[in-house]
Amino acid sequence: MISILPLDRAQPTPLYLQLYEGVRRAIINRQLTPGSSLPSTRDIAALLDISRNTVVNAFQQLIAEGYLETREKSSTFVNRDLPETLLSAPKISGIAHPSPEKPALSKHGQMMATAKAHQARKGNKHNIFTNGVPALDLFPFDIWTRLIARHYRYAPLSLFDETVSPQGYLPLREALANHLRTARAVKCDAEQIIITSGSQQAFFLAAAMLLDPGDKVWMEDPGCMGPRAAFISHRADLVTIPVDEEGLNIEVGIELAPNARVAYVNPSRQYPLGVTLSLARRLKLLEWAARANAWIIEDDYDSEFRYSGRPLASLQGLDTTGRVIYIGTMSKIMFPALRIGYIIVPRELVAAFTAARGAMDKYPPMINQLALHEFMTEGHFNRHLRRMRAVYDERRGLCEDALNAELGGLIQLGTSDAGMHICGYLPPHMDDFAVAEAAEQHGIEVLPLSEFYLGPTQQHGLILGYTGISPDYIRVGVQTLAKVLEQFV
Amino acid sequence: MISILPLDRAQPTPLYLQLYEGVRRAIINRQLTPGSSLPSTRDIAALLDISRNTVVNAFQQLIAEGYLETREKSSTFVNRDLPETLLSAPKISGIAHPSPEKPALSKHGQMMATAKAHQARKGNKHNIFTNGVPALDLFPFDIWTRLIARHYRYAPLSLFDETVSPQGYLPLREALANHLRTARAVKCDAEQIIITSGSQQAFFLAAAMLLDPGDKVWMEDPGCMGPRAAFISHRADLVTIPVDEEGLNIEVGIELAPNARVAYVNPSRQYPLGVTLSLARRLKLLEWAARANAWIIEDDYDSEFRYSGRPLASLQGLDTTGRVIYIGTMSKIMFPALRIGYIIVPRELVAAFTAARGAMDKYPPMINQLALHEFMTEGHFNRHLRRMRAVYDERRGLCEDALNAELGGLIQLGTSDAGMHICGYLPPHMDDFAVAEAAEQHGIEVLPLSEFYLGPTQQHGLILGYTGISPDYIRVGVQTLAKVLEQFV
Asked: Which CATH architecture has domain B2-86?
């Protein structure tokens, strides 16, 4: 018994746990065989020089877990019902590998495993050209934290229980509907909005709901990673459509895949090129969708930051046929790690999308929905948005000026009337991947445009984020970039 | 012009927006046709008796959105590139319905639309018999809020940006691994843990990764709704397996579906019956999975609350072949609306599951991961767990005593050595749905056992939650239930 159960008083593990584990192992290894009787707890205690209580505790656990059983009052046996052939670890692992391979992943799973929806930003100290990062140092975390604390203190406790709809907190949906009607000319009411765990969940949800394996999807090329990963995960057939200064080329789309099931599009501001889908193209896209019986997924990720005039009206607001699914995010105006986004669907799809969203992960953490609702209705949201619009406009101006001054000949700037980045086009002989890599060695995070092409690269360039960078570092950042580019001339 | 543009100074909408909207509508309706020229901004201002600036603002927006264009310096035209045939709303909606129906949902989407993963609790004031609700009034929200506020104040800002891995915050995964190794005998390290948005996302993720349409899944019957919804969503073929006092009947499983791809099981405490999977059955299940090249999904949802001895060791800890996927939740120890759960997968699946999880919704809100990590490492988690174990044990005792005293003949109580509810079996002639409905009219929320059967109902009963109810209301709750049951005798 002592040899089977080497107790070690020096270990932090309590003795009764050591005893439990020792007996358990002895049974699994068949040193103690089913039906064999054990000494009384009193004898074991004496034998091992421990308190009887310790032995009783261990035995109770072993009985509860089915290793031991008691028959008459005081005698304890190894459970006779244990299937002897199955005990002993080597035996189990012997049976375990009739074929050496593990059961494979599903086809869906195999595709999902290839998804690159999220590449964690490396982050650089001054966010020099870091793409899509808001000016987090200017976010009113004090106000936000106050709202969070207030709701933890005063909100009805039932809101922290499962009384929540997967569609999301109704007052938040109402505040959002108000905002989107005014700011984005979206035609919707709260009933059509489903709050998601970021826009990525909205893409994934839309893909799951709309796409069968092999279905064709029009994808802007170059284009976004996240939605692409969602569609690929559902084994859709992505049809790459070129983007020119008027946005997605609808004619080419119709030529290449007239019967696509979904067109994914950034009408307000194409990512990463920054161009706007022209009105003529918008009308053609809507007309095609109606004719082809297809859905349009409008991803409106950062167009609330427009630096002259109001943000451009959404495509969804122009649609009269209920074929546009509108997706937005709080990551840019609030902060990315908040993980709140939304999807707006035609009325007749609300029930289906809500049920599906519930099957995916129920609903986003309630506290953030409560606080965000108040952040919006108390005016902090619009105030912060207005403030950031001015801040980003200034940074954009400084970046453009510095880039033109230092790199005028080498880099040609794309449009930047909105959003959070400029696309800087490189001369055709410059490999943007190599440039990005060299820049990283100088502590600068620029994204190569080539990375965003699903088809062959049409243009080399750099995605230059300007929203997270403090004005003090713009010139030095641009000068560093100039030094990097000199190597490639 | 004035008839096209009826401005209304009484409206809250700014005049320039009214003007913008009026011109936009006139173009869409073809009251203004492509190529036609507009009066100068000065003339319009005079005509409508508004400031010229207002007109300029409206025109700038209309130009930006492509409705208008300027050719020579000062003249403005309706954009000539607008496809005339596509303009005018009636025309668009005319084209829109060549076939009256909308494009259908995908097959996956159609199944997801039927999912009933989440039924919002109605909630009753005293949580009388409400199922699965923790004693939220005893949760240390003050400590929790302090941790949240501290991290918003002092955590590096980069943690609120996209620098996070979809696998989750590493220190939290480490704290969890420590907890689960000790408390649940799970064999894992932080590297195998993926933080999810609640256990529902873990079920959904596992279903997506492991199941192709038509694959068979062993399901305990009666059993849980959430995982069932996840598997049905992925068009799996659910095979219902009876549960007896030893838990899932493995022999029946082998008989009905020897080649199932997944077995879903609650070994520690079966939901809703409360029984434990016997050791003999555990060994047989592992042996079958090895032989059949199948996966086992272990859902360990509330067994941390065990009222005598330690929690029972997990099935995962007994597995030597890496076929068990372990899923847990923070909803019971913390609170449901926190939406944090976890999935522990064999090492070789970590990369695939992490990529897939990223495609679904990136990662859960960072602040909750940061605060939960500290809540665990500072000892609040274990302290709260210990405290709740005592509180729930007391409530359980009071409930059982009251139920036996008031309803001794009518209701037969199942095991309640762990967890958050008791299953009270009703006589065969009593319809538990009808009882639950009648109880609801008396303000009591009991779940009918029948609801949890996928196959034919084998036993009628009531799921009686006792964790959220304050001791003061236990007797009155039981008396009310007795009154309800009297109608059915």
From this structure: Orthogonal Bundle (1.10)
Alpha helices in B244-379 (DSSP H): 250-256, 279-292, 350-361, 366-377
Q: In terms of C-beta density within 10 A (0-12 exposed, 13-18 middle, 19 or more buried), how is residue A377 classed?
A: middle
Question: What is the location of CATH 3.90.1150.10 in chain A?
Answer: 383-486
Q: Are A148 and B149 within 8 A, CB to CB?
A: yes
A293: left (phi > 0), else alpha (psi -120 to 50), else beta? Answer: left
Cis peptide before A213 (omega within 30 of 0): no
Q: Where are the beta strands (DSSP E) in B128-236?
A: 193-196, 216-221
pLDDT higher than threshold 90 for residue B190: yes
Q: Which stretch of DSSP H or E encloses residue B354?
A: helix B350-361
Q: Which CATH superfamily is domain A383-486 in?
A: Aspartate Aminotransferase, domain 1 (3.90.1150.10)
Interacting residues of A377 by C-beta distance below 8 A, sequence separation 6+: A171, A175
Give start-end residues of each CATH 1.10.10.10 domain in chain A: 2-86
pLDDT number for residue A163: 81
Residues of chain B with CATH 3.40.640.10: 140-378
Q: Which residue has the tokens 């999880």?
A: B357
pLDDT, average across residues A322-348: 96
B237: part of which helix (H) or strand (E)?
strand B237-244
CB atoms within 10 A of CB A269: 28
A463 strand-pairing partners: A423, A447
- On whether any CB of chain B is under 8 Å from the CB of A287, the answer is yes
In the numeric block, which tokens belong to residue A443? 């502590």
| Predicted pLDDT of residue B96 | 40
**For residue B94, is pLDDT > 50?**
no
Asked if B102's CB is within 8 angstroms of A348's CB, the reply is yes
Q: Is A150 on the interface with B (CB under 8 A)?
A: no
A387 vs chain B: nearest CA distance in angstroms? 19
The CATH number given to A140-378 is: 3.40.640.10
| Residue A10 touches partner B, C-beta closer than 8 Å | no
**Nearest-angstrom CA–CA distance, A324 and A316:** 6
Smallest Cα distance from A212 to chain B, Å:
5
CB contact under 8 A, A66 and B294: no
pLDDT in tens, B215-243: 999 999 999 999 999 999 999 999 999 99
Tell me which chain B residues have a C-beta less than 8 angstroms from the C-beta of A364.
197, 339, 365
pLDDT tens figures, A296-317: 999 999 888 999 878 889 999 9
Contact by Cβ (8 Å): A341, B360: no
Cβ–Cβ < 8 Å for B263, B272: no
